[in-house]
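Our consortium's second objective concerns turning raw sequence data into structural hypotheses that experimental partners can test. To show how far this objective has progressed, the report includes one record in full. It was chosen at random from the queue rather than selected for favorable results. The single chain below, 179 residues long, was entered without modification.
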Amino acid sequence: MDSHAPPAPAPWTPRIVAFFCTWCTYTAADLAGVSRLKYAPNARVIRVMCSGRVDPQFVLEALAQGADGVLIGGCHPGDCHYVEGNHKLLRRFQLLQRLLTDLGLERERVRLEWISAAEGDKVRWAINDMVETLKPLGPLNLPGQQQAWDRELARRAENPEPAPDGPPPGPTAPIPSPL
């Protein structure tokens, strides 16, 4: 064996950003840690006061900054400390799922789980299951895709494609002025 061979690259593991409400899911994650429940170290937890405060823009920014998936955890419906925060999140989550589809991203990359403060084992399951769900999807690599898109735009700006022969598409008669 060649002692100068470069080391084999480590296998890819998904990077997950987790938005957890402070009252239930974050407390359950703390319980999982205190209980020494083993789960994948792939999630970076961001504590929010209420899951209803998770804006779809936060999720898209996490993906744009290199996350392969986003896990959102909130109180069970009816148990929100802010009365209807998790109902607000559910409406936003449904909108976010449609947006992901429109962007051509897999819906499985963003997940919502209702986890109470006493469900440390469910935090472990949700993180481990999300890692296993993301592995077959592979890296999202939106930052790399954005760089590729920027290069494509620069290339097109330098070498614009020739205009097609004939009149431009659209109406041929002049559009009357509204004044």
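The partners drew two points from this record. The domain at 16-140 is CATH 3.40.50 (Rossmann fold). The two ends are 83 Å apart (CA to CA). Both points have been shared with the crystallography group to help prioritize constructs.
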